[in-house]
Amino acid sequence: MQKRNLYFALAVILMFFTPVQVESSQELTVNADTLKNLKFDAPENLVDKKYLGLPDGRNFHLGQVRSNYLIIELFSMYCPVCQRGAGTVNQVYDLIQNTQAIRDNFKVVGIGVGNTPYEVSVFKKKFEVGFPLIADDNFIVQKALSSDIRTPTFVVAKLSGKNQLEIVLTRVGEIKDAGEFIRTLENTLGSH
Predict the structure, then answer these.
(1) Which domains does the chain have, with CATH numbers?
(2) Dist. CA 7–CA 2, nearest whole Å
(3) Is 132 helix (H, G, I), strand (E, B) or coil?
(4) Do residues 126 and 87 touch, judged by C-beta distance below 8 A?
């Protein structure tokens, strides 16, 4: 009983220290050099590790993901907008996985801002997320952004060369239509 009360108290405390939640799109600058060098714990799930094409090891940098493009979702387990939009983000992932022309060029990863590995695993299970989710319980991704993190935020990066990363799109706020988001990607990448 005491453990359950402790977990509940911890959850309430964390709710007050989670990123600001927004629903509208806002400007955000992401420092690609800083982002590519942030070190995260590698997924323990071998399927997720293989999907990202990561080398053996306990840690990795986003620039090590084997793909032409990486869609990064910054979310929080405690963000109601992230929870509400999880199904649509899953649809984005499914559209990518089911479209041969883009499947080989895109990977999707979620970073649980301020979330522990346990919290990330709860979110993944509850919302049946098919792509890898990574914990960032120390808010290290904050270093790569121009301002406080607002969840959800989506960053699309072009990966090239050895550990090279270029930001091609940032979007703050919920994705309400998976098809529209894919079309936005296509339009943006057509200019790169």
Answers:
(1) 29-190 (3.40.30.10)
(2) 9
(3) coil
(4) no
127 forms beta bridges with none
Does the model's pTM come out above 0.85? Answer: no
* pLDDT 10s digits, 165-191: 899 999 999 999 999 999 998 888 876
pLDDT band of residue 55 (cuts 50, 70, 90) is: confident
Q: How many helices (H) does the chain have, and how many strands (E)?
A: 7, 9
Residue 178 token pair: 């998976």
CA distance 71 to 51: 13
Per DSSP, the three-state class of 52 is helix
Percent of the chain with pLDDT over 70: 84
pLDDT of residue 146: 66
* Token code pair at residue 116: 């522990």
Determine if the peptide bond prior to 152 is cis (ω within 30°). Answer: yes
Q: Mutual orientation of helices 178-190 and 80-97 as an angle, nearest 10°?
A: 60
* CA max distance for the chain: 57
**The pLDDT of residue 57 is above 90:** no
Q: Is the pLDDT of residue 164 over 90?
A: no
Question: Distance between CA 164 and CA 160 in Å, rounded?
Answer: 5
